[in-house]
């Protein structure tokens, strides 16, 4: 038991600090659990230990610790979540969400109330049936454009977008991966999984309450960090970092390529575009041979510029404002956009240099925003994180490629030519069939979801190679890694001990109050670590606490499930919060200011709702 608690503390620290990616931490936990028994058996044989330590099973129960350790990969929860990612992607690729969004956008005008109502009203129901992270990723560009077109700060809409996707995910079993995982844990511990619409009635109550909060108190508390866009270069405060220079006749770089002269220099400088006569060139610029009279638009700071002018034989062009209009002169189409690093992106942990960003995507990064922090110098040294927003200059073709790249979300609406709009009825019908089969027949959700994933391929909604891009593999490995930790907590008696401590900490309190405390503790935990890890750790504790109180254990499982799926108080508590962190320019404290009151309201509403709908008497 001591080893399990020590491992939990280490895992919690790694989850909270993100010293390692959460999926790597989870797999490390799984490996550590599987190593305990064979290692201690070797120590016993060497006479260094009295008896082996059993973590994943008990002696004589006929269960293999290896099977238990790897059970997360065979878990119905893991496979169901994987299938739901595929179903969500199939729907997404039809463009139906964009169609709904554009129709709503046409009705909102410049009214903040209507914009906010449309945002919350659209993402909530959608998140009940497709992955809520995907819903936010799809709607983020539309919501940003709605805000800017109405001269409203996008910050006023993006945090509500994230929050509404979370409580909208509580409308059905398939709304979040957390619900699916909690359902399996409930089945294992209580023999009672969640049905498709098990908690829809409470989900509706929570959604209505959350919507009212966001339209009233939340509207007042959410800050307008990002101004309504007039100019992206102004938004990223690029005035002191963008300039134009001309190559002198006597410049030593005449005859060299851009790569030789400027791209590989030690100076902190990026060549944004080349103007030669009446023509303007964007990436790829490296192979271009420099001529006298060439004009370069550069991203650099003033001190570096002074040194660069002297060293390379360049002259500053005075009285030129390098703004959006100047940077987009190369094309009639938009070539200056914001990119958001998406969950599961291959660039997470990489720098712009190590990812070879410029050559890989034929695009130049002018600035990087992380919350309120702006990087406009030495960006090539900054490790990228989910939610980072990049101000990028690129050709229209490059932007089209970036728009269909799962590593990024383009934060403005860019029409995708690959939407399969003719497949909209088919994709929606497949998802509806998956829901109906799971809800109305004895067929398990994992079977109907897998069948739906196969149907997406057979009907052409998805192509076979797109299956692998559809899945957020970090979530799958996280689930597979943390499930054995929950088993270890149960097998060693750790869950019993924590439940006893929980009950003793609230002596004499009625079950309703203890239920509320269980919600609060889980909510605080899930705001710091992964929501799936919170469910794995807290569901066994909740079940044991209910048994000691002689209360309804299923009600306690529901409290943990709702709390784990509604992490409002930190940007790291939920992936959707991270997605809007950079585009909204938020501070960490904004999540506390707006999310803490909402979390408190939900603690009361959810606790009372569970008591009303399911009761607290033992069943």
Walk me through the topology.
Blueprint: H1 2-17, H2 22-45, H3 65-69, H4 71-74, H5 76-92, H6 96-108, H7 112-127, H8 132-149, H9 155-168, H10 177-190, H11 200-215, H12 217-221, H13 232-235, E1 242-247, H14 258-263, E2 270-276, E3 279-281, E4 295-299, H15 302-312, E5 314-316, H16 324-327, E6 336-341, H17 357-361, E7 363-370, E8 373-375, E9 389-394, H18 396-403, E10 408-410, H19 424-440, H20 445-458, H21 466-470, H22 473-491, H23 494-504, H24 511-526, H25 531-549, H26 553-564, H27 575-581, H28 588-614
GO molecular function, one term: monoatomic cation transmembrane transporter activity
Membrane topology: Multi-pass membrane protein
Protein name: SLC13 family permease
What does this molecule look like?
This protein has helices at 2-17, 22-45, 65-69, 71-74, 76-92, 96-108, 112-127, 132-149, 155-168, 177-190, 200-215, 217-221, 232-235, 258-263, 302-312, 324-327, 357-361, 396-403, 424-440, 445-458, 466-470, 473-491, 494-504, 511-526, 531-549, 553-564, 575-581, 588-614; strands at 242-247, 270-276, 279-281, 295-299, 314-316, 336-341, 363-370, 373-375, 389-394, 408-410. The protein has 619 residues and is of the alpha+beta class. The chain has a five-stranded antiparallel β-sheet with strand order 3-2-4-1-5. Strands 8-7-9-6-10 form a five-stranded antiparallel β-sheet. A hairpin with a 2-residue loop joins strand 2 (270-276) and strand 3 (279-281). Helix 7 runs antiparallel to helix 8 and helix 24 packs antiparallel against helix 25. The model has no long low-confidence stretch (mean pLDDT 83). It comes from Haloarcula nitratireducens.
């Amino acid at each position: 038991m001591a080893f399990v608690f020590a491992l939990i503390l280490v895992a919690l620290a790694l989850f909270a600090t993100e010293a390692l990616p959460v999926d790597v931490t989870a797999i490390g936990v799984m490996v550590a659990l599987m190593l305990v028994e064979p290692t201690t058996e070797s120590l016993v044989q060497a006479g260094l230990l009295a008896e082996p330590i059993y973590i994943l099973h008990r002696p004589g129960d006929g269960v293999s610790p290896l099977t238990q350790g790897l059970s997360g990969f065979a878990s119905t929860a893991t496979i169901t979540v994987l299938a739901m990612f595929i179903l969500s992607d199939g729907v997404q690729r039809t463009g139906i969400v964009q169609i709904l969004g554009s129709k709503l956008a046409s009705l909102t005008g410049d009214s903040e109330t209507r914009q906010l109502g449309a945002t919350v009203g659209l993402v909530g129901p959608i998140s009940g049936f497709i992955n809520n992270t995907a819903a936010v990723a799809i709607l983020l560009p539309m919501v940003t454009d709605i805000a800017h077109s109405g001269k409203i700060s996008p910050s006023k809409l993006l945090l509500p977008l994230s929050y509404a996707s979370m409580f909208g995910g509580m409308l059905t079993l398939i709304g979040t991966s957390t619900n699916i995982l909690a359902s399996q844990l409930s089945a294992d511990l209580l023999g009672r999984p969640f049905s498709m619409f098990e908690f829809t009635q409470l989900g509706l109550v929570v959604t209505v309450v959350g919507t009212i909060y966001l339209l009233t108190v939340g509207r007042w508390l959410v800050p307008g960090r990002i101004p309504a866009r007039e100019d992206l270069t102004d938004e990223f405060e690029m005035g002191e970092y963008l300039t134009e220079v001309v190559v002198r006749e006597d410049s030593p770089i005449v005859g060299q390529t851009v790569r030789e002269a400027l791209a590989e220099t030690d100076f902190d400088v990026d060549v944004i575009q080349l103007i030669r006569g009446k023509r303007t060139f964007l990436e790829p610029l490296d192979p271009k041979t420099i001529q006298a009279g060439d004009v370069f638009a550069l991203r650099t700071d003033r001190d570096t510029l002074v040194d660069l002018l002297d060293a390379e034989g360049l002259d500053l062009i005075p009285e030129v404002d390098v703004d959006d209009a100047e940077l987009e002169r190369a094309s009639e189409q938009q070539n200056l956009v914001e990119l958001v690093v998406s969950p599961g992106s291959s660039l997470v942990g990489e720098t712009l240099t190590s990812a070879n960003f410029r050559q890989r995507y034929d695009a130049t990064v002018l600035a990087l925003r992380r919350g309120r922090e702006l990087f406009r110098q030495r960006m090539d040294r900054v490790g990228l994180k989910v939610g980072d927003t990049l101000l990028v200059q690129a050709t229209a073709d490059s932007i089209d490629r970036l728009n269909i790249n799962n590593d990024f979300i383009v934060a403005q609406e860019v029409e995708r030519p690959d939407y399969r709009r003719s497949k909209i009825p088919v994709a929606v019908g497949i998802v509806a069939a998956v829901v109906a089969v799971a809800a109305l027949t004895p067929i398990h959700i994992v079977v109907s979801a897998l069948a739906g994933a196969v149907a997406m391929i057979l009907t052409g909604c998805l192509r076979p190679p797109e299956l692998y891009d559809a899945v957020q593999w970090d979530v799958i490995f996280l689930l597979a890694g943390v499930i054995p930790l929950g088993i270890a907590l149960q097998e060693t008696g750790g869950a019993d001990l924590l439940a006893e401590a929980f009950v003793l900490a609230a002596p004499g309190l009625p079950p309703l109050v203890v239920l509320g405390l269980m919600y609060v503790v889980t909510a605080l935990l899930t705001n710091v670590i992964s929501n799936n890890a919170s469910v794995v750790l807290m569901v066994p504790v909740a079940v044991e606490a209910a048994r000691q109180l002689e209360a309804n254990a299923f009600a306690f499982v529901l409290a943990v499930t709702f709390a784990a799926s509604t992490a409002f108080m930190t940007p790291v508590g939920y992936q959707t919060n991270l997605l809007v962190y950079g585009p909204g320019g938020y501070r960490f404290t904004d999540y506390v200011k707006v999310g803490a009151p909402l979390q408190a309201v939900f603690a009361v509403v959810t606790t009372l709702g569970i008591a009303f709908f399911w009761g607290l008497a033992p069943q």
